[in-house]
Amino acid sequence: MNKDNDKNKLDTVALTPLRRAFGWLKQIALFMLFSIVITGVMDIWRGKDIPRDNLPDIKGMTLSGTDIDIDALSQDQAVLVYFWGTWCPVCNFVSPAVDTMASMYPVVTVAMNSGPDDKMVKYLQHKGYEFETINDSNNDIARDWSVQLTPTLMVFKDGELKYYTTGFTSLPGMWWRMLLS
Predict the structure, then answer these.
(1) What's the predicted TM-score (pTM) here?
(2) Where does the chain cross the membrane (predicted)?
């Protein structure tokens, strides 16, 4: 009888790390699901002021001298538009992911109230960012679009706004939005 008790204790001890790992995975999955739901609700609430019909144009010249027209650019493929600022702490975490996306998809960024062109060029070079940037030094484009929070990401396809999100967005989150549009 002692042998059976000892064997049951060994089985319980052996399963404990496995059960513990499964418990942690379950907690992580629940946290991720909760986060997705909360961020989705927040995006809807924050996006209530973003125009959906009769959208203003996003046109401009990038710091590299390229003329950009999001409506025309989005006719063939999805385009990620990223409103950000050099002064935005969250943008420091999102901008590297946007730069990675720029190597796979068309990406246009709009730098809000971030200073004169020469400072922006130096900033982008210092950070190693290669994405196309329209310097919206007076916030004219951001004001037309009612963008008040940074970072703000939008996905356009066929001239239509398909996805809109504000705040921290991960690389997989951007990638999925681009694939789904």
Answers:
(1) 0.74
(2) 24-45
